[in-house]
Design goal:
heterodimer; A: 384 residues; alpha+beta; 6-stranded mixed β-sheet; B: 405 residues; Heat Shock Protein 90; 5-stranded mixed β-sheet; two-stranded antiparallel ribbon; 7 strands
Chain lengths: 384, 405
């Protein structure tokens, strides 16, 4: 596996010589960029011209990752040339009659093959129901093949997210899946949060799907506003400061809890839309950030991602981390990327993005799940 | 620029750094300072709100707990009253029998009092001084002798007395023998009677002896009935323990005996009570509450056996600091799917109106208060409730928060 990377920023242009990409002929190119760059199309057209033979896949983000650095209003390009691994890409568009579960099912069915090794999903971030998508993905996937990936972002705006594939027009309503085929490829994955739950556990007394209305019989939005104080005017973004930790049984310490972040609020119905389902009757607890624990979480995710790999070196890490982590880590965001780089090794190329939701199994025997507020690392190695 | 940064720059760098290359750096530091302040304010605010919420929740929990305890106490009282109601009905029945016996004795004595006095006076007039003395001796001996209640003994004595009377050619030998045997005379006693009077006075003499003996039997019956009443009253007093709701020193064997006395009416028909009581140390406990437990377990056993079977109660020391009690019945047993639920409130397999479903739940609560354990093993024909009761129950401490409300 050979990899070449570059970053483009409006103020400075390409960081490396663009000619490096010429005659490289990669199989797969990841481009993660700000919404403005994607809607402007210039850069995507340039990429299509540079890589006519490659599968070009990417999305809008809430922060672009290249190496151990994060940047905004940029585009990060990672071109991968596999030695033996084949790549196939499928994209589906959500519609009134085509829901998220259907999307998951359709994608997996179109990628299924005996040599299918791993699937990376890059999804729309605001219109998709992540839980339903994951159910559709898992339903038809062979037990030994896993899905990792994430939901596209839109900076801190939560308005419109884009995904794109080759020279198709970027879509604000699509889900893309990349199938990796062949015996030479190994993929490991890990997903970890590092947030601390605090305060009272409140029962979800009114919710439908991923829309939350009431906790303990009180308006959930009002509770958020009370805790956010002045920052309530920055909703929905500021709600990321207090993600929800959900548990079916608040006293059960063995079952892992599910973390959910907010996508939007509706003042008229006093409701809040979350990135995944909020099951009625479950118990919700606010979570708060602890810098050290967040960085440790990233480190643990990276460690888990290389546990099952037998290759001598980790060649490529796809990092998908939650926008909520970036919001609280602020200038210290690079620390969690550095933590991952340290675990994967300095020779591992890293890219990825800050997302509105992460996709990964909890453990290797587990099916893919939708996560929020985690660092999710998928590490790739291709043997000779 | 953040105030602290500005002050630090003034102090350590003599004002602003004018160099252009530091501008972005200074700005980043200033933003970090501001963000730190914001994060700190948010944390402070969260801490304050969480504290308020927890205080509020704690207060409402304390209120709820208090209400729950009051309800629980009411439930325990009403269950206790229900059990007492049943016990009172049984005890009333138990008291009724001896009271009726005493009334019958009094009525008989009332009817025969004059006849006895008249017959005695008549006899005494016809006896000389020596004979009067001997007659009084016979009466005294008779009054001091033990009651003979065995019908076969009475029958044998009657035959022997009759033979002795016939030998002396006393008329109406059969009738006289019948009366003398009925009041406790045997062949030895008849010799004394024969020595007192001749044939012509024998009928009057025997009649008078019979009246004295009959009166003695009546009084003995009344005495036994009175003892039975006294025992029941004593059991009731012991059962209810005057120091209710207080830790008292008690003997569990006595308490179980008392409970069995109270429940005698239900047990006496067709239940064999097999008592296997070892000598055990006294226990410091809430004795009246434990009596509620014993009553409940014995009552349940009686109900399970439908009033017929063997109830075995074992009491023995368990190590140095506890005693072990077992209540075993020969009822049909508890279904395995019910075993987990029998201590749950409102769980009952009894028909409607027969059980509230609170009995065992309250028992479990009372035993828990005594740090005692209860377990049950049940197979068809053998159900054993085993209790390990510590010798000393420490006072349950009530949290200060609860005492305040």
């Amino acid at each position: 596996m050979n990899i070449k990377q570059n970053r483009w920023q409006k103020s400075t242009g390409w960081e490396q010589d663009i000619n490096d990409f010429k005659n490289f002929s990669p199989n797969l190119v990841f481009i993660f960029a700000s919404k403005t760059i994607i809607t402007d199309k210039t850069l995507l057209q340039e990429a299509n011209a540079l890589f006519p033979e490659a599968q070009i896949v990417g999305c809008s983000t809430a922060g672009e990752i290249i190496g151990a650095q994060v940047s905004d209003d940029s585009a990060v390009v990672t071109a991968i040339k596999f030695k033996a691994t084949k790549v196939r890409v499928k994209s589906v568009t959500l519609g009134d009659d085509k829901n998220s579960y259907w999307a998951g099912e359709a994608l997996i069915k179109s990628l299924l093959d005996t040599k299918l090794k791993h699937v990376v999903v890059i999804s729309n971030g605001t219109k998709v129901n992540g839980d339903a998508l994951v159910k559709g993905l898992n339903e038809f996937l062979p037990q030994e093949v896993k899905v990792t990936g994430g939901l596209a972002g839109d900076g801190a705006d939560f308005e419109q997210t884009f995904t794109f594939h080759n020279n198709e027009t970027p879509s604000d309503n699509s889900v893309i899946a990349i199938g990796f085929y062949g015996d030479k490829l190994q993929v490991g994955y890990g997903s970890m949060g590092g947030w601390d739950a605090f305060g009272p556990q409140r029962k979800v007394t009114r919710a439908t799907g991923n829309i939350l209305y009431e906790l303990d019989g009180e308006s959930a939005l009002e509770i958020y506003k009370k805790y956010l104080g002045d920052k309530a005017k920055e909703l929905p973004l500021s709600a990321l400061l207090f993600p929800l930790c959900l548990k079916e049984d608040p006293h059960d310490k063995n079952t892992p809890s599910v973390v959910r972040t907010i996508l939007s609020v509706d003042e008229n119905t006093q409701s809040m839309v979350f990135a995944g389902d909020i099951p009625k009757g479950w118990y919700a607890q606010f979570m708060k950030a602890n810098f050290d624990h967040l960085v440790e979480g990233a480190e643990k995710a990276a460690t888990a991602s290389i546990e099952s790999l037998t290759a001598a070196t980790n060649q490529f890490g796809l990092l998908i981390s939650c926008v909520g982590r970036k919001l609280v880590l602020k200038q210290r965001t690079d620390e969690e990327l550095e933590a991952v780089q340290t675990i994967l090794g300095k020779n591992a190329a890293m890219t990825g993005f800050y997302s509105y939701g992460e996709l990964s199994p909890f453990a290797h025997s587990d099916d893919c799940r939708l996560h929020n507020q985690t660092m999710t690392v998928a590490t790739f190695s291709e043997s000779e | 620029m953040h105030k602290l940064l500005k002050r630090q720059m003034n102090r350590y760098l003599d004002g602003e750094l004018n160099d252009e290359k530091y501008r972005a750096f200074i700005e980043a530091v200033s933003i970090a300072y501001d963000q730190f302040d914001e994060d700190h304010a948010l944390t402070e605010r969260s801490l304050e709100l969480v504290s308020e919420e927890f205080i509020e929740r704690n207060e409402s929990l304390v209120r709820a707990l208090k209400e729950l305890k009051e309800t629980q106490s009411q439930l325990i009282k009403s269950e206790k009253m229900a059990v007492l109601g049943q016990l009172v009905a049984g005890i009333a029945h138990e008291l009724n029998t001896p009271v009726a016996a005493i009334l019958s004795v009094l009525s008989t004595l009332n009817d025969h009092f004059f006849v006895i006095i008249k017959d005695l006076l008549h006899l005494m007039i016809n006896l000389n001084e020596q004979e009067q003395h001997e007659f009084l001796n016979i009466c005294m001996t008779l009054l001091k002798s033990a009651d003979i209640r065995s019908s076969s003994t009475i029958r044998e004595n009657r035959k022997a007395i009759q033979a002795a009377l016939i030998e002396k050619n006393i008329p109406s030998a059969s009738s006289l023998a019948h009366k003398l045997a009925a009041v406790g005379f045997n062949a030895g006693g008849i010799a004394l009677v024969l020595s007192v009077a001749g044939k012509e006075q024998m009928v009057t003499l025997v009649e008078s002896i019979y009246q004295v003996g009959f009166t003695k039997i009546l009084l003995s019956d009344a005495k036994k009935a009175s003892h039975r009443i006294a025992n029941l009253v004593k059991a009731l007093k012991l059962y209810s323990h005057t120091d209710q709701n207080a830790l008292v020193e008690t003997n569990i064997v006595t308490d179980i005996e008392t409970t069995l006395t109270i429940l005698h009416n239900k047990l006496k028909r067709a239940i064999i009570v097999n008592k296997k009581f070892d000598v055990v140390p006294t226990v410091i406990c809430y004795a009246d509450e434990l009596n509620q437990v014993w009553t409940n377990l014995i009552n349940n056993a009686i109900d399970a056996m439908k009033g017929k079977g063997v109830l075995t109660i074992r009491i023995k020391p368990q190590g140095d600091n506890a005693i072990k009690l077992e209540f075993e019945d020969t009822g049909p047993g508890i279904k395995s799917e019910h075993l987990k639920e029998i201590f749950d409130p409102f769980f009952t397999t009894k028909s409607k109106g027969k059980g509230t479903g609170l009995g065992l739940s309250i028992c479990a609560g009372i035993l828990e208060k005594h740090r005692a354990t209860i377990k049950v093993v049940s197979t068809p024909g053998k159900t054993v409730f085993q209790i390990i009761l510590p010798l000393i129950t420490t006072e349950v401490t009530i949290p200060a928060a609860l005492q305040a409300c």
